[in-house]
Amino acid sequence: MDLLDRDGLTEREFLEQYRVGDFERPSVAADMVIFTVTNTEADSYRKLPEKELRVLLIRRGGHPYIGKWALPGGFVRPSETTGQAATRELREETGVDDVYLEQLYTFSDMGRDPRTWVMSCSYMALIDSDQVQLKAGDDAADATWFKVTYRLLRERKELLENGYVKTYEYELKLSSEEEELTAVVDRTETVKPTSASTVYSIVSNNGLAFDHAKIIACAIERLRGKVNYSDIALHLMPPLFTLTELQQVYEVILDKELLKAAFRRKVADLVVETDRYTENAGHRPSRLYRRSLED
Amino acid sequence: MDLLDRDGLTEREFLEQYRVGDFERPSVAADMVIFTVTNTEADSYRKLPEKELRVLLIRRGGHPYIGKWALPGGFVRPSETTGQAATRELREETGVDDVYLEQLYTFSDMGRDPRTWVMSCSYMALIDSDQVQLKAGDDAADATWFKVTYRLLRERKELLENGYVKTYEYELKLSSEEEELTAVVDRTETVKPTSASTVYSIVSNNGLAFDHAKIIACAIERLRGKVNYSDIALHLMPPLFTLTELQQVYEVILDKELLKAAFRRKVADLVVETDRYTENAGHRPSRLYRRSLED
DNA sequence: TAAATAGTGTCTCTAAGACATTATCTG
DNA sequence: CAGATAATGTCTTAGAGACACTATTTA
Questions:
Q1: How far is the CA of A180 from the C1' of D5 (A)?
Q2: In chain B, which residue's Cα lies nearest the Cα of A232?
Q3: Is B79 touching A (CB cutoff 8 A)?
Q4: Partners of A102 in the β-ladder
Q5: Which among B10, B85, B119, B268 is least surrounded, fewest beta carbons within 10 Å?
Q6: What is the number of other CB atoms lying within 10 angstroms of the CB of residue B80?
Q7: Which nucleotide is the nearest neighbour of B284, by CA and C1'?
Q8: Which domains does chain B have, with CATH numbers?
Q9: pLDDT tens-digit profile of A33-61?
Q10: A40 touches A133 (CB < 8 A)
Q11: Do A101 and B195 touch (CB under 8 A)?
Q12: Per DSSP, what are the bridge partners of residue B165?
């Protein structure tokens, strides 16, 4: 191809003389919402332990937001994609390498980082609970798993001349053994005859750095959505698990109880039964399953 | 709050002395896949016109990819979000202002722009076919609507020791009155015991600039997915439309035929009937509906 | 009246919800 | 045996698929 541009240059010539302009560029960070599921202590030898959905946060050691908790992440380098940056951060933070990783959303509100112009390309990672026990307080003692709850507090609907604005107000609670962080995040859906848009905003926030409450909210909503029509939740499971455990994971993600019979029908194609069983429970043993690698 | 960092600075002092580092930053562009639906000419006075899904492309006037067709877009400025940049580009390109807009994905592969390090935060916009007729060849005669088809060509599955790789090969065809662009895009899903990932890659490409074939593929898949469980397709409709027209729009998006009775049941809650009817068709008139602004 | 589209009725099939029943382990 | 969980059976309900039938307009 030897097409010439209006200066009479070929593409090769153009690229050779090309100089990166002086216009301002943003920094781009990859921030990750790393989920896992852990067991709580069982009440008695007979009862099963309960499951908790957890997210990894890191206490900030420097300004801005010093002392606040932030998602693991860091700036994307020129030689890598945002996904590679996320993978690198994940390995640095947890030592884990081979996980489910999905890009969520790119946040670019002005002022979201008081230092300079920073966009955040956010990712969600799912780590199975076995892998993660090993590498918890890796290097920084300030990396901690927080239990997550995310609940609809209230719902408002305001009518416009043509259309409406619907606001869903969610409470995000993150609790570690020592601290409890709470944020309230609004999801505002504006619907008009031709347009429609959804905006997240932070109503209140105590303890989380930057706009990370928004990012976590976004991740939970994605996770809840996908759980219903994909095998995504299986990435939170160890290699062998019981169907009751899997159901508990679904329940803790969706924050609602499911019926056993219907649940088992629904996940039947996502798992494969093994001939192994749980042992030494104070009750009937349960068959162990693994993730199906078919389809 | 007067927490001090390790240099003994308050947050205010830290921000005052903060200097943007010298590490390299990417340019970030907002690129948009703008969809609309138009009628083809009817064969006879009796037949209904057919619908076509169309995408707006702009012929590049300079290097790189001179003469190739690209998605409308441009660099994000320091005073705006990626979404605002997309809205601005949309207005500049089509004159349209109030549309459905949704962020898709941020592409950051190295070398995706031969000039320099450029990430693309991509958006999908849906414009109703009435609005768009007006402002077609706005300023640039090189902005043209291309008819889109996106079809699965073949499917491969390769087994690994533990897991598998499944590749879906899609053919993307874009045709205007003068040109036909064809690209083949692979969606590769790698599934292993603990991880899973999906990667798009361009297998062949004639006529499209950059990695825009990937972005268009991504947009069509999002659109197809959302059509089934949301009212997203209604943003492609004019204020008044018949249910047959709406069905045609669903069919052209999904590239498959739907059953009338089932379709009408499914969209019943998304639309509101009016007391108006089509006129002067060579057959029974059809009731006109509008989009429901409830729920 | 023929050609075409508009619109509805209804049977079937599948999946999910609800709930009851049986099975099996451990202390 | 009591207490707990495991696993399955089945009735009901909701929605989609399939297809047939009736209705209404214009040249």
A1: 33
A2: B196
A3: yes
A4: A124
A5: B268
A6: 16
A7: D25
A8: 27-291 (3.90.79.10)
A9: 999 999 987 667 778 899 999 999 999 99
A10: no
A11: yes
A12: B158, B190
pTM of the model: 0.94
How far is the CA of A98 from the CAs of A101, A127, A180, B190, B199, in angstroms?
9, 9, 30, 12, 15
User: Closest to B239 (Cβ–Cβ): which among A6, A100, A193?
Assistant: A193
Looking up tokens 């009796």 gives B46
Cα–Cα distance list, B104 to A101, A108, A294, B87, B195 (Å): 16, 14, 28, 14, 23
Q: Nearest to residue B266, comparing CAs of B250, B242, B287, B286?
A: B250
The 10s digit of each residue's pLDDT in B120-157 is: 999 999 999 788 764 444 455 689 999 999 999 999 99
- How many angstroms separate the CA atoms of A254 and A154, rounded? 17
* Partner A contacted by B239 (CB < 8 A): yes
Token code pair at residue A90: 């994940």
- Kindly state the helix (H) or strand (E) to which residue B130 belongs, with its residue range: helix B129-134
Distance CA B292, CA B282 (A): 29
